[in-house]
Design a protein that fits this description.
The protein is an alpha/beta fold and about 150 residues long. The chain has one domain: Nucleotidyltransferase, domain 5. The chain has five helices and seven strands, in the order E-E-E-H-E-E-H-E-H-H-E-H. This is Protein required for attachment to host cells.
Protein backbone atom coordinates (compact mmCIF):
# COMPACT_ATOMS: atom_id res chain seq x y z
CA UNK A 1 0.00 0.00 0.00
CA UNK A 2 1.19 3.52 -0.78
CA UNK A 3 2.34 5.73 2.08
CA UNK A 4 1.02 8.83 0.30
CA UNK A 5 -1.70 10.77 2.09
CA UNK A 6 -4.30 12.46 -0.10
CA UNK A 7 -6.30 15.41 1.21
CA UNK A 8 -9.53 15.94 -0.73
CA UNK A 9 -11.18 19.32 -0.24
CA UNK A 10 -14.47 19.67 -2.04
CA UNK A 11 -17.80 21.40 -2.34
CA UNK A 12 -20.52 20.94 -4.94
CA UNK A 13 -18.51 22.95 -7.53
CA UNK A 14 -14.81 22.18 -6.91
CA UNK A 15 -12.75 19.25 -5.69
CA UNK A 16 -9.05 19.73 -5.13
CA UNK A 17 -6.66 16.94 -4.25
CA UNK A 18 -3.50 17.59 -2.28
CA UNK A 19 -0.83 15.03 -1.41
CA UNK A 20 1.97 14.53 1.06
CA UNK A 21 4.41 11.73 1.75
CA UNK A 22 4.92 12.75 5.37
CA UNK A 23 2.30 13.00 8.15
CA UNK A 24 4.10 16.17 9.31
CA UNK A 25 4.95 17.53 5.88
CA UNK A 26 3.75 20.25 3.59
CA UNK A 27 1.05 19.41 1.06
CA UNK A 28 1.05 19.94 -2.71
CA UNK A 29 -1.95 20.23 -5.01
CA UNK A 30 -1.95 17.44 -7.57
CA UNK A 31 -5.40 17.54 -9.19
CA UNK A 32 -8.54 19.65 -9.54
CA UNK A 33 -12.01 18.58 -10.62
CA UNK A 34 -14.64 21.17 -11.53
CA UNK A 35 -18.42 20.82 -11.71
CA UNK A 36 -19.81 24.24 -12.75
CA UNK A 37 -23.38 22.85 -12.84
CA UNK A 38 -23.27 22.88 -9.03
CA UNK A 39 -23.25 26.67 -9.09
CA UNK A 40 -26.16 27.23 -11.48
CA UNK A 41 -29.57 28.21 -10.08
CA UNK A 42 -32.34 25.59 -10.04
CA UNK A 43 -34.55 27.49 -12.49
CA UNK A 44 -31.73 27.50 -15.07
CA UNK A 45 -30.96 23.79 -14.58
CA UNK A 46 -34.62 22.76 -14.82
CA UNK A 47 -36.42 24.12 -17.84
CA UNK A 48 -39.58 22.03 -17.53
CA UNK A 49 -42.54 23.11 -15.44
CA UNK A 50 -43.22 21.01 -12.36
CA UNK A 51 -45.42 17.96 -12.85
CA UNK A 52 -49.14 18.20 -12.16
CA UNK A 53 -51.31 16.07 -9.97
CA UNK A 54 -55.04 15.75 -9.43
CA UNK A 55 -56.26 16.33 -5.89
CA UNK A 56 -58.19 13.48 -4.30
CA UNK A 57 -60.61 15.89 -2.69
CA UNK A 58 -61.86 18.63 -4.96
CA UNK A 59 -61.72 19.45 -8.63
CA UNK A 60 -58.30 21.17 -8.74
CA UNK A 61 -54.91 20.22 -10.04
CA UNK A 62 -51.70 21.47 -8.49
CA UNK A 63 -48.02 21.52 -9.29
CA UNK A 64 -45.82 18.96 -7.58
CA UNK A 65 -42.28 19.52 -6.41
CA UNK A 66 -39.67 16.94 -7.31
CA UNK A 67 -38.37 14.85 -4.40
CA UNK A 68 -34.88 16.35 -4.73
CA UNK A 69 -33.76 19.74 -5.93
CA UNK A 70 -31.58 19.97 -9.00
CA UNK A 71 -28.74 21.22 -6.78
CA UNK A 72 -28.96 18.05 -4.70
CA UNK A 73 -28.94 16.01 -7.90
CA UNK A 74 -25.87 17.86 -9.22
CA UNK A 75 -24.11 17.40 -5.86
CA UNK A 76 -24.76 13.66 -6.08
CA UNK A 77 -23.46 13.54 -9.67
CA UNK A 78 -20.27 15.36 -8.67
CA UNK A 79 -19.76 13.29 -5.50
CA UNK A 80 -20.07 10.15 -7.62
CA UNK A 81 -17.47 11.49 -10.06
CA UNK A 82 -15.07 12.22 -7.17
CA UNK A 83 -15.71 8.81 -5.60
CA UNK A 84 -15.01 7.03 -8.91
CA UNK A 85 -11.75 8.94 -9.32
CA UNK A 86 -10.75 8.04 -5.74
CA UNK A 87 -11.55 4.37 -6.35
CA UNK A 88 -9.44 4.30 -9.52
CA UNK A 89 -6.56 6.07 -7.76
CA UNK A 90 -6.81 3.60 -4.84
CA UNK A 91 -6.71 0.68 -7.29
CA UNK A 92 -3.64 2.27 -8.93
CA UNK A 93 -2.00 2.58 -5.45
CA UNK A 94 -1.67 6.36 -5.77
CA UNK A 95 -2.51 6.87 -2.06
CA UNK A 96 -2.86 4.86 1.11
CA UNK A 97 -4.71 7.33 3.34
CA UNK A 98 -7.49 9.85 2.71
CA UNK A 99 -8.45 13.04 4.49
CA UNK A 100 -11.78 14.60 3.46
CA UNK A 101 -12.87 18.21 3.94
CA UNK A 102 -16.25 19.42 2.66
CA UNK A 103 -19.33 21.30 3.84
CA UNK A 104 -21.49 18.98 6.00
CA UNK A 105 -24.17 18.20 3.38
CA UNK A 106 -21.65 17.53 0.60
CA UNK A 107 -19.44 15.50 2.94
CA UNK A 108 -22.40 13.20 3.60
CA UNK A 109 -23.15 12.92 -0.12
CA UNK A 110 -19.51 12.12 -0.86
CA UNK A 111 -19.36 9.54 1.92
CA UNK A 112 -22.43 7.77 0.48
CA UNK A 113 -20.91 7.77 -3.03
CA UNK A 114 -17.67 6.11 -1.92
CA UNK A 115 -17.24 2.34 -1.88
CA UNK A 116 -16.46 0.63 1.43
CA UNK A 117 -12.78 -0.02 0.62
CA UNK A 118 -12.13 3.64 -0.18
CA UNK A 119 -14.14 4.82 2.85
CA UNK A 120 -11.98 2.53 4.98
CA UNK A 121 -8.89 4.60 4.08
CA UNK A 122 -10.39 7.83 5.45
CA UNK A 123 -8.61 8.77 8.68
CA UNK A 124 -9.96 12.31 9.13
CA UNK A 125 -13.06 14.24 8.04
CA UNK A 126 -13.52 18.00 8.40
CA UNK A 127 -17.02 19.38 7.86
CA UNK A 128 -15.82 22.73 6.49
CA UNK A 129 -15.69 24.28 3.03
CA UNK A 130 -11.95 24.72 2.49
CA UNK A 131 -11.97 24.29 -1.29
CA UNK A 132 -10.76 27.83 -2.04
CA UNK A 133 -7.70 27.74 0.24
CA UNK A 134 -4.18 27.39 -1.12
CA UNK A 135 -1.97 24.55 0.12
CA UNK A 136 -0.27 26.58 2.87
CA UNK A 137 -3.56 27.93 4.28
CA UNK A 138 -5.22 24.51 4.05
CA UNK A 139 -2.36 22.88 5.97
CA UNK A 140 -3.08 25.20 8.94
CA UNK A 141 -6.62 23.76 9.16
CA UNK A 142 -5.31 20.19 9.40
CA UNK A 143 -3.82 18.52 12.48
CA UNK A 144 -0.07 18.94 12.80
CA UNK A 145 0.35 15.19 12.33
CA UNK A 146 -1.85 13.51 9.74
CA UNK A 147 -2.82 9.96 10.68
CA UNK A 148 -1.98 7.19 8.23
CA UNK A 149 -4.39 4.35 7.51
CA UNK A 150 -3.47 1.03 9.09
CA UNK A 151 -2.15 -1.32 6.50
Amino acid sequence: MSKTIWIVVANRVTARIFATESPLGAIDEIETLLHPQGRVQDDVLVTDKPGRTTERAGPGRSATDPDTSQHEHEATVFATEIAQMLTKARNDARYGTLVLAAPPAFLGTLRKAMDAQTRGLVTLELDKDLALLDARALRTHLPERLVRAEG
